[in-house]
Specification:
Layout: H1 31-44
Length: 47
């Protein structure tokens, strides 16, 4: 997107309460394991 383009509206995702974006740094291979661990931790907290 450029500075002149309008921002698209945020649309709800059916059945999804929260959305967390996981970006990668230098260790790209660690991202899937981090995502799994994050999901398990959030599920154990009832999120």
């Amino acid at each position: 997107m450029t500075a002149n383009q309008p921002v698209p509206p945020k649309l709800p995702i059916t059945g999804v309460k929260h959305l967390i974006a996981v970006g990668s740094g230098k260790r790209v291979s660690a991202r899937p394991q981090f995502s799994v661990n994050l999901g398990v931790a959030l599920a154990s907290l009832g999120a």
